[in-house]
Design goal:
Helix 6 crosses helix 7 (126-133) and helix 7 crosses helix 8. The protein starts with a helix and ends in a 6-residue tail after the last strand. It has 274 residues and is mostly helical. A 3-stranded mixed beta sheet has the order 1-3-2, with no helix packed on it. It has helices at 3-15, 19-22, 32-38, 50-58, 93-96, 106-123, 126-133, 140-161, 171-174, 181-185, 209-214, 225-228; strands spanning 101-103, 250-254, 264-268. It has a domain at 103-158: Arc Repressor Mutant, subunit A. The chain binds a DNA duplex (10 and 10 nucleotides) through strand 1 and helix 8. Keywords: Nucleus, Transcription, Transcription regulation. Residues 52-65 have a biased composition (Low complexity). Residues 66-75 have a biased composition (Polar residues). Its main location: nucleus.
Length: 274
Amino acid sequence: MREEDSSWFSKWEEELPSPEELMPLSQSLITPDLALAFNIPNPHHTPPPPQAAAAAAALPPQSTAISSQPNSSAEFDSPEMSGAAGGGGGDEPARTLKRPRLVWTPQLHKRFVDAVAHLGIKNAVPKTIMQLMSVDGLTRENVASHLQKYRLYLKRMQGISSNGGGASNSPASGMDAATDHLFASSPVPAHFLHPGRPNSDHYLPFVPVAAAAAMQHHHHHQMAVFEQHPFLRQTQPPLQRMVVPPAYAATEDLESATPANGKKVLTLFPTGDD
DNA sequence: TATTGAATAT
DNA sequence: CATATTCAAT
C-alpha cells in the first residue's frame, strides 16, 4: 500500500463512530417517510417498503423513536389513497406523500464525498453513492441532486486553476463565496479536480473483509460493523463490502425559519462536528 | 426497465 | 440559494 492510502484509511477510521454510538442506529427500521406518513411515534410492526422489506424481516425488535422531537402537534392527516385497507395492503403512502426536504449537513456531505472518493469518479453515480453512504432515509434522488451541485462545484474549482482567459468571469477567482461553505467543509480529493488523470482513480477500492484480520496491529473494533448490522443494507450482493460505517438515523426536525409554513426538514445525523 | 444527468421547478 | 422534480437519453 501507499502511504497515502494508509493515512487516508487511518483518517477514515478515526471518524468512525464509537460502538456506543452505533448502537442506537438499529432503531430505524422504518423509513422516515413511512414514519412521517403514519405519524408513528412508536412503530411496532414495520409495514415493509419494497427495499427495506427484506432487511426489516431480519430486524431485531429494537425501536427507538425516529422523531426524538417531542413534537406535540399532530398536524398531519394522512391523505391516503382510497380504500386499500384490505389487510394485504396495496397502499404505499410513503410513495405518495412528500418527504421533508433533506438538509445536507457537513457530516452528511462528508459521507457523500467519502463515498464518491472511494468509488472513483467513474462509478460515482447516484445509486452507488447512495448505497455506499448507507444513510437511512437518503434517497437516490437526494444524492442525484446533491451530486449535480457538487459537480458544478468541482467544475468551478477546476476553472479557477487553469484559466483560459475568460475575462467575463468574476466568481471563479472569488472561489468560496458562501455557497461553497458546505462543500468547503469537506476537502475535495485531488483526483476530482483532474479528469485527465485516469490512473489515480479511487484510492481505496474497498477493504476486503480479510484485510480486517490482516490488519491486526491496530485495533479496529468497528471493522466488522457491517456484519453486526446487516439490516439497513439494501440489496446488492456483488458490490462493495467496504468499511463504511453503518447507516445513520434520520431525525425529523421542524424548521423554525418558516413557522407559518410548517415545513419539515429531514436532518440526517444532527451531531455536528468535523 | 431502471438509472443517469441536465433542466427546470419549488 | 438549496433542494426537489421532471424529463430526455442511455
